[in-house]
Design a protein that fits this description.
This protein is α+β, with helices and mostly antiparallel strands. Helix content is 37%, strand content 24%. The chain has a single domain, classed as Aspartate Aminotransferase, domain 1 (Alpha-Beta Complex), CATH 3.90.1150. The protein has a six-stranded antiparallel β-sheet with strand order 1-2-3-4-6-5. Helix 1 packs across helix 4.
Length: 123
């Protein structure tokens, strides 16, 4: 089980990462682009998920493309999932109470790589 403090620690360990906000929630960015963020679920999200609504905190991370998103949701669910709100957005949601820490680290690092400026990512 992970917590937002784990997300913060992992995110800020990456080169040039900094904490900020995105849509009023905590977020971590590199080069001004958000790569991981706190993503509370709204009523519409909860209705869509039904009995699969996570009980604890949820974060979002960017992924490289739609195929990566589909594979992650299929292979790593229910810790990694998506909602219809993300239909055209290359990102997944992570249930922090269900994700293993090594997977969380990998997902955050990969998300950082997806959005980091090339000069930063190549360091």
């Amino acid at each position: 089980m992970a917590a937002l403090t784990d997300v913060e620690r992992i995110a800020l360990s990456l080169p040039q990462a900094e904490e900020g906000t995105w849509f009023g929630n905590r977020a971590w960015k590199v080069g001004g682009k958000t790569f991981v963020w706190d993503r509370p679920l709204g009523n519409k999200d909860e209705a869509e998920l039904g009995g699969a609504v996570p009980e604890g905190p949820v974060v979002g991370v960017r992924v490289e493309d739609r195929l990566t998103k589909e594979v992650l949701c299929e292979n790593e669910g229910p810790a990694v999932f998506t909602i219809s709100h993300f239909r055209n957005f290359d990102a997944v949601l992570i249930d922090l109470e269900k994700v293993e820490e090594d997977l969380l680290e990998d997902l955050i690092a990969e998300s950082w790589r997806v959005v980091a400026p090339p000069a930063v990512a190549s360091d």
